[in-house]
Each structure stands twice: as C-alpha cells, then as structure tokens.
Design a protein that fits this description.
Blueprint lengths: L15 H10 L8 H13 L6 E4 L2 H11 L7 E5 L8 H5 L3 E5 L10 H15 L5 E3 L10 H11 L2 E5 L7 E2 L2 E2 L6 E5 L12 E4 L3 H11 L22 H11 L2 H18 L6 E3 L7 E2 L5 E5 L1 H4 L3 H9 L6 E2 L15 E2 L3 H8 E4 L7 H20 L12
Parallel strand pairs: 2-3, 2-4, 3-14, 4-5, 5-8
Antiparallel strand pairs: 1-9, 6-7, 6-11, 8-9, 10-12, 12-15, 13-15
C-alpha cells in the first residue's frame, strides 16, 4: 500500500530540537526569549536586512496589528483581494471596518490594478472618502503586481499592507516579497514553506512600528510598576519554543524554496502537451514565485473532468488535493460586502486545483500524482459521467 501523499506537510530540518532543548534548559518557554530575538534577526537578514521583524502567534495576528498600526478603525473601509484565504479579510472586521473586495487578474491571480482603481473611485463617489488601506495578497507564493498596486495606492493615499503569508522566498523584480508595503504579514502555519508549528510575523518599517507591535501584542501594558492598561491589547507574541522551531527551519529555508520550485517544474514537464490543463506559471522574468503550492486549471470541456472530480479521484488513490480558495465575495459571512470585478476569481475557483507540493515529497511521488490525474481524465473520456454532478457548491 502506498503512503498517503499530503498537500503540504511540515518538513523538519533536524536542527529544531537543539533550539527547543536550549529553551527548556534555560526555562525560556514563554512568549519572549533568545530564540524569539534570534528568529526575528534571521528573518530580517533573509529579507535583505531592510526591515525589522516582530514574531507573532499567527499571520492573522500580523494583519490585525498592521491594520491597528495603520489607524484603521470603525467606519473605515479597507480594500482586500477577494481571491484569498479568509485570514486576509477577518482582521478588517476585527477593527470594525468594512472590507471592500476586488477581483483578480489572470496573469498572477492576484489583485487586479484596474479593479483596484475602480473600487477607489466608486467608494469615493459613494462615501465621499477613499478607503484607508489595501491588502494585496501574493497568492500561492506568486507575487502580485506591486508596482501598479503601489502606484495607485500612493496616488490616492491608501496604506499598503502586504499579505505575504504564502510568499516567503518569492521575489518581484529581484526584491523579496514582504517589503513593498508599509507593513507586511508572514505565516508559519504547519503547511507553509517553513513552520513554527503555528505562528507568523509582522514586517515593520521603523523602530516605532516595532515598539508599537510589541506593545499591542503583549497585552498593551503601560510603563508602570504594576499592571496598568490605557489601551486594548492582545496576546499575540510568539513563544520562545515556537521561535526555536523557526530558527531550525531558517537553516533550510532556501532548500525548501528550491525544492518547491523543482516540484513545480516537474509537474510542468509531466503535464506538457496535456490539452485542457493549465499550470500556474511566472508570467514574466519579473516574477519569481516560491511555488508554495503548484496549482492547475482544468477545462471540463476538454479534459472531461472538473476539479472536484479530480480531487475525489486523487483522494481515492491516497492523494490530498484541494480546490483553489473560494473568493471572499462569495462567502456567506461577507455577502453584504461590496465587490468590484468581472468574475475572474470565480472562474479560477471553479476550474482550479492545488496539487501536493510539500518539500519533503519525492520526484516519484510527484510522478504518481501526475499519473493518477491523467488516468482520471483518460478513464472519464472512455466512460463519461455527468460533469455537473461534480460542480462545486456556492
């Protein structure tokens, strides 16, 4: 029996245990300590030593604090990419602000600058003011069109908060993702390029950003000999143990990124010439995705299968795959939120599938995934089923 092939499991380096053991040996097991400091320095150095970094409990916490530091409050509007995970949008609501969702463009699958501008213009006409901030996402590791997005944001005075949760190691025009915005969020969830078990980080711009982030992430305690609080705070700091895992992971980050890119290239090679199957690729040399996940689009009219049919078939052969993110403007919880677009994100959701891409996977396992997917298409051409029976439910 074959071993289960998962979408994206954590991949340990072997160095993590020594940093964790050091934390236990010195009793530094709380949300501060030498591992936290060292992990933050490692991340900053990796990003080119251009920005200071604060380690937090999750990428969601990082986006939340970025909004807080940007002055987003009740009554404000924040533009957010619709085609993303819910954690990109939830923190907007935490601040009692209103999310305004914008569609994707077909090259990177990220925020479309055209609809971004249209959203700003329409909100200005309807409300008399421009949104406070914008959250572009580097989805599946693919960099967004940051030059255009940044230029429009600067023109109208919006603060740019990058969601780089999936993009550690990705580059746009030779610059690491995460340092284009005023602030940026990283995630170290168990399925990311590197993990700290759970965790995230806020990429800051100034020492004041760092002080404010640490202040709010450690319960907003005033400078007093007793516990006094003048502002609402949060328990968002990363533990010294989790940061120890992160330090071990940083030693193999480049290897993990290289491996994910190799996996993408292998899928591309294996699917070459397969009609009706499109693999997400870097649209030009300006983009250098880490290919956190390799994603494909399936044309049911040509392949005879929908992504859901393929997902179920792969699952029956011990392979985990997943649909692309369901756009936020289609989510019941955001049904009342404004949306600007032409349906690109919906089409991607309807036709897309994420394939196993973990850095620990072997070439043999990747070949098996591709073989199973192509067999699924071949078998269905011989014995077609009703494609509509496998439509995703909105």
């Amino acid at each position: 029996m074959r071993e289960q092939i998962y979408l994206s499991l954590a991949h340990m380096s072997g160095y993590e245990q020594e940093f964790i053991a050091e934390a236990f040996r010195t009793n530094w097991v709380v949300p501060l300590g030498p591992n936290v400091d060292a992990f933050e320095k490692d991340l900053s150095l990796y990003l080119g030593n251009a920005r200071p970094v604060v380690a937090l409990s999750s990428g969601t916490a990082a986006i939340h604090l970025a909004l807080l530091l940007s002055g987003v409050k009740a009554g404000d509007e924040v533009i957010c990419q619709s085609f993303t995970f819910a954690a990109s949008a939830y923190p907007i609501v935490y601040q009692q602000a209103t999310p305004i969702f914008v569609d994707s463009e077909s090259d990177t699958w990220n925020m479309d600058p055209h609809w971004f501008r249209k959203a700003i213009e329409d909100r200005l006409e309807k409300t008399g003011k421009v949104p406070k901030a914008v959250i572009p996402v580097h989805l599946y590791g693919m960099p967004a069109q940051m030059d255009e997005i940044g230029s429009i944001a600067e023109e109208y005075g919006l603060i740019v908060i990058e969601d780089a949760a999936e993009a550690l190691g990705s580059e746009y025009k030779g610059i690491k993702c995460g340092i284009f915005g005023r602030l940026a969020a990283l995630s170290f969830n168990g399925n990311k390029i590197i993990t700290t078990s759970g965790g995230g980080a806020l990429i800051c711009r100034t020492p004041e950003d760092v002080r404010e982030t640490i202040f709010y992430s450690t319960q907003a305690r005033d400078d007093a000999p007793y516990y006094q609080h003048s502002r609402i705070g949060y328990n968002y700091r990363m533990s010294n143990i989790c940061a120890g895992i992160g330090r071990g992971q940083m030693k193999v980050l480049d290897q993990h990124v290289t491996r994910r890119r190799r996996i993408h290239d292998l899928y591309k090679e294996l699917f070459s010439g397969v009609e009706g199957l499109t693999i997400q690729e870097n649209p030009s040399p300006d983009y250098h995705s880490n290919f956190w996940l390799t994603c494909i689009l399936l044309d049911p009219e040509v392949t005879g299968v929908t992504p859901e049919m393929a997902r179920q078939y792969l699952a029956g052969h011990g392979i985990e795959s997943r649909p692309l993110w369901k756009p936020m403007h289609l989510q019941p919880v955001f049904s009342a939120s404004p949306f600007y677009g032409d349906g690109t994100a919906e089409r991607l959701f309807e036709t897309g599938l994420c394939l196993p891409s973990g850095s620990a996977l072997t070439d043999e396992q990747i070949r098996y995934v591709a073989e199973c997917l192509m067999t699924c298409m071949e078998e269905n051409k011989k014995n077609p089923v009703r494609v509509k029976d496998y439509d995703l439910v909105y």
